[in-house]
Request: fold
Amino acid sequence: MDAALATALGVIGSAVVSGAAAMYGSKVAGRAQREGNAVTGFNSLTDQLQEERKELRTEVATLKTELATERAESARLRLIVQSLGGTP
Reply:
């Protein structure tokens, strides 16, 4: 085998190994990118759910206050009806 043939085979072998390494590296990078996107999406969804939960807690507190006010008004009106001789 002469030097030119050995050099050519070496270059071809190096190209094959380099190509395989590039494909593997691309595959690993793609997987890391997908995992990163999944984590980012999960974090975004979690933030949105926490914000929604906070808003719902505020709404529940407001509704509880309104309910207590309505019950107090109902009790007051019952007392007025009873004082006038009626039955609630």
